[in-house]
Amino acid sequence: INYTYTFGNTRFIAFNSSIEGQVDSTLTEASFTWLEQTLAASTEEHRIVYMHHPLLPPSWAATKGIELTEQRERLASLLVQYNVELLVVGHAHGYDYQYIDAEDFPGLSGGFYQLAVAGAGGSYTNYTGDHFFVLVHVTDDGIEHYKIDYSSFNFSAASATSQKNDGSESEIQFTLANLSPGAVPAVRLRATLASS
């Protein structure tokens, strides 16, 4: 499923690179048409595309990502043509941040960053880092991201009351203490509340 949305000054585009039953990706003509039309219609200051397979797999990855060279080149050209700043990908379990330009795809007239963020779970094949999360901030000044290693988290979270977080309560309170050595840029707590 391909879809797009706008938040602030940024157009986010979710591009489906997965085909059922295939490990690596072969993109359809319909997907290319949809992506080009979506990019062409975008008037936002920033554009971020995210998809499952890497356009250019990290050097340590045990995957080809998008299988056909012609499709990789075509996708890279579209991203440059429509000034996409960031391509966020998964599939290759691990972290990688690289600038993709004419050194990777001869003839490319510009470039963009690819951020591989498949690190929250699963097993690693060649990547030697810890499991991690990535927090992306989009501001008027640009796009920044922060890699947060799972091992750097040290939280003490507890319900402030004896209430269970099972959907039976209409309200619940948490106390959260950051016991990590540094500041944590964001925290997400999940609570299941009764609908009444």
Q: With helices defined by DSSP (H or I, 4 residues minimum), what is the helix count?
A: 2
Topology as H/E string?
Answer: EEHEHEEEEEE
Strand-residue proportion: 25-35%
Major β-sheet annotation: 5 strands, mixed
The residue fraction in helices comes out at 10-25%
Low-confidence stretches: none
Biggest sheet, strands in spatial order?
A: 1-2-3-4-5
Gyration radius over CA = 20 Å
Number of strands: 9
The chain-level structural class is alpha/beta
Question: Whole-number average pLDDT?
Answer: 81
Shape: globular
> How far from one another are the termini?
33 Å
Describe this structure in words.
The structure is a single chain. The chain is an alpha/beta fold. It is 13% helix and 32% strand. It has helices at residues 29-41, 69-81, and strands spanning 3-7, 10-14, 46-50, 86-100, 112-118, 132-139, 142-149, 155-159, 174-178. It has a five-stranded mixed beta sheet, covered by helices on one side. Strands 6-7 form a two-stranded antiparallel sheet. Strands 8-9 form a two-stranded antiparallel sheet. The chain is globular, with a radius of gyration of 20 Å. It starts with a strand and ends in an 18-residue tail after the last strand.
